[in-house]
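Changelog note: in this version the structure field was regenerated for every chain. One regenerated record is shown below for reference.
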Amino acid sequence: MGRDNLRFLFLDVDGVILDNAMWEAESSRLVGAALSELLGGGADVWAEHQERLWLRVWNRGNEEYTEALGLRRLNLSRWWDRLHAEWVLQLRDEVGVEAPRTFEERVDVAERTFTNVYLNTRAVFPGAGSAIEALAKDFEIHTASGNPSWVIETLLTGMGIRELIGRPFGSDLVGYQKGHRTFHGRILNEVGARPQESIVVDDHEAPLLAAGRLGAKTVRVGGAGSGEFDLAIESLSELPDAILAV
């Protein structure tokens, strides 16, 4: 991989730092607890409905995002606010509570709920934090995730490693979702990183292929090995030793 020429590391979050297999149960538990405290009602009732309604809102939101792409009208921060507010509205109606009534109140409830989730989740991959600590000795690290940037910041704070990450790039800061062809290029430009100096780590093939076309080195996490990527590893915890070995 020519490590001596590499200075920047860009990490995805879901599937790289967070274990997707654990996430649904973890998020339901923590969402239920947070909404019960904020709005009343039983935690189990909130937890029962939250994932199904979030998927409904997410699917509709992605349709809106795709349409907005064609019209070149994008504000990803506002888009996330609308998704979060709609999710709380649908949960409120499903559970049958009176509050919150306004858009701003619903956004606030969602953000406070997800802050609780990401600060306290147990769905972080074992060894992910230690790997980032080791990698930070040799690389300038940023995230490159489809999540909102404030969610990434909250997760890193809960892990105790926020100071090791430069910019918590999420879709709201980039202006596009991770699947867009310009996603990684915009991030590299923002921090002054040349593709040839950069490693992009993700668990999905498409963004890695796009990053590779820019000239970045690519690491696939949790997927089958392929000649398309410079490295294929099972978990982020393997990355420090894997980079040393090439």
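Spot check on this record: The two ends are 6 Å apart (CA to CA). The first helix runs from residue 20 to 39.
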